[in-house]
């Protein structure tokens, strides 16, 4: 790793996982495998939810956008990390770091927002089945997705503007495989990072509100499901809700733990692993969870992989992508 003139460099130095060349190659290969699996799984979901007429309901429409977010989310950090490992050079210009922080924080918030929308969709479908198509009509679904992407952009702008308004006066070493905001704040030697803390507090309150909304939605969902007389009906309802609940719990718990715990002056492998659990793992497991738990998704995957023909799309949400 190039260590000379770190304090005077214009950009930053990402320390990554190891200084040992063999371990860097291993890291690059593992990340490449995870990246290819993630792209494959999420692109399959995007394709089949676009082409298959049986997958045009709002649930699959939101799942399609979750997969699109996952593809973008993992592409922000992993390819750069692979390149740094293969080139044995963790340097990153300030412009690259600014762009990465903006896209990363935008997509991170958009993931929280789309998961919240998906929980409301399940709540409407299970608790108000007779009014579901009115509650979640195509126009409302379009506006919900637009709000997700717009809120993510606003979050990214606020976070990036306040983060890079601070003065970096310490050695610009980031003990991560990407430009991590908590690590950037450690490079400040004054109190001008208080703006970032204010923005973080505001976003944390909004995230807590989203989490509360998700919890309330599932309280109503489970109380409704338990009143369903048939075992088959309960099983079908749980099969659509439990995967989403698992994804929400996993993503929010890992992200909260990573951002709320104090940053150490001597980062460990544990810190890097935790960061992987909210940056790399969720985009990879989302297609697996939704694909393996949903019969309609599995059937559409078989059609795609075996060269089957998709019939013409129904008009319900075909115009909303």
TrEMBL record:
It is a multi-pass membrane protein. Keywords: Cell membrane, G-protein coupled receptor, Membrane, Olfaction, Receptor, Sensory transduction, Transducer, Transmembrane, Transmembrane helix. Gene3D superfamilies: Rhodopsin 7-helix transmembrane proteins (1.20.1070.10). Odorant receptor. Residues 41-290 form the G-protein coupled receptors family 1 profile domain. Its main location: membrane. It comes from Chrysochloris asiatica. One of its GO terms (molecular function) is olfactory receptor activity. GO terms for cellular component: plasma membrane. It is found in: Cell membrane. The chain crosses the membrane at residues 25-48, 60-78, 98-120, 141-159, 193-219, 240-260, 272-292. It comes from the Eukaryota. Belongs to the G-protein coupled receptor 1 family. The gene is LOC102831807. This is Olfactory receptor. InterPro entries: GPCR_Rhodpsn (IPR000276), GPCR_Rhodpsn_7TM (IPR017452), Olfact_rcpt (IPR000725), Olfactory_GPCR (IPR050516).
